[in-house]
């Protein structure tokens, strides 16, 4: 992965917003090709995502309200990496909170940049197996509005191709999980 | 697609940044489930992306410097929809500027949300075929630093699985194009 191999030269930085989960700043850079310009950036601690596969070969998906899209999206469970967490500990927590499962086996399937034009967020993607349903769902984050749906890998592939699953990180993670789902 | 089916109630909005390509604001909303909170949002006009397939079954990919990742990423050609453009006209322009090809056949393969946790950007994805190489590459955007690479669909799939193509929108678009690439 080419991350960090060619840092730009920071000439000036202005912080416009400091938030709970990320900051937003505007930067004047000199790039490796010597061109100069201003670029805006969400500064994000990164996110972790699970493709959770149950014993009877179903994927646990969440249908989640997103204010930015003014509707509900089908997504794999994911969350922002909090202070002191590793990607693994973040997603172990999120999968319990969002879908009510505990996974015993975790396999890293890849990492990718969500929106490299204006965000430094990296998503760390895992396949979660040996799932055990928790007796009671842990408390959800207050600002989340989430329903859990079980679908076969074939149904998820169809949902992507038919335009029913329209979240980029979930489509990308499904693609990274494919070799482990169809064989 | 559930876009717009359940708009939240906007209680307060503060614009923090007005940029060339997008704005950034912070909003107090009441969601359909009646919970209230503050959410930050990149307000983006949308992007268009092409999966360009040449006559000899190669995909035209760009290797592009991204300040946010401090390195070069493999991506499908894409660009921000500018004022007065349709997604089709944006990507017809971008494919000429970025990879030096003109495509005669365009097929919409899907649309998806890039980062629905903090951005309203929609990516409109197209398969571009009947490509004709332009005699000379049009002028590139000044802040871009781009190299064009031709790869077979099998090579792109391997690049995704091996972690060499790590751009979420490109991985998602490849997945939408799959049924048209392998048969």
What does this structure look like?
- 2 copies of one chain form a homodimer.
- The first copy, chain A, has 2 domains: 9-43, no CATH class; 47-111 and 121-181, Nucleoside Triphosphate Pyrophosphohydrolase (Alpha-Beta Complex), CATH 3.90.79.
- The first copy, chain A, has 3 helices and 10 strands, in the order βββββββαβββαα.
- Chain A has helices spanning 87-99, 153-161, 168-181, and strands spanning 9-18, 23-30, 36-43, 47-52, 59-66, 71-75, 78-80, 101-113, 122-133, 146-151.
- In chain A, the strands form 3 sheets. A 4-stranded mixed beta sheet of chain A has the order 7-4-9-8, with helices on both faces.
- In chain A, helix 2 runs antiparallel to helix 3 (168-181).
- The longest helix of chain A has 14 residues, at 168-181.
- Chain A starts with 8 loop residues before the first strand and ends with a helix.
Which helices and strands, and how do they pair?
The structure is a homodimer of 183-residue chains.
Chain A: E1 9-18, E2 23-30, E3 36-43, E4 47-52, E5 59-66, E6 71-75, E7 78-80, H1 87-99, E8 101-113, E9 122-133, E10 146-151, H2 153-161, H3 168-181
Parallel strand pairs in A: 4-9
Antiparallel strand pairs in A: 1-2, 2-3, 4-7, 5-6, 5-10, 8-9
Helix pairs in contact in A: 2-3
Summarize the structure.
By secondary structure, the first copy, chain A, is of the alpha+beta class. Helix content of chain A is 20%, strand content 43%. In chain A, the strands form three sheets. A four-stranded mixed β-sheet of chain A has the order 7-4-9-8, sandwiched between helices.
């Amino acid at each position: 992965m080419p991350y960090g191999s060619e840092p730009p030269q920071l000439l000036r930085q202005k912080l416009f917003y400091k938030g709970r989960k990320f900051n937003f700043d505007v930067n004047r850079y000199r790039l490796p090709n010597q061109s100069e310009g201003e670029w805006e950036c969400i500064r994000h601690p990164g996110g972790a995502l699970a493709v959770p596969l149950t014993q009877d070969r179903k994927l646990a998906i969440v249908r989640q309200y997103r204010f930015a899209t003014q509707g509900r999206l089908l997504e794999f469970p994911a969350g922002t990496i909090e202070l002191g967490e590793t990607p693994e500990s973040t997603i172990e927590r999120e999968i319990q909170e969002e879908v009510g499962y505990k996974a015993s086996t975790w396999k890293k399937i890849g990492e990718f940049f969500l929106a490299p034009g204006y965000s430094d967020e990296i998503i760390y993607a895992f396949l979660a197996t040996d799932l055990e349903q928790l007796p009671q769902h842990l408390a959800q984050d207050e600002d989340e509005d989430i329903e859990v749906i079980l679908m076969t890998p074939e149904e998820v592939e169809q949902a992507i191709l038919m335009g029913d699953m329209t979240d980029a990180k979930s489509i990308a993670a499904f693609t990274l999980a494919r070799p482990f789902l169809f064989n």
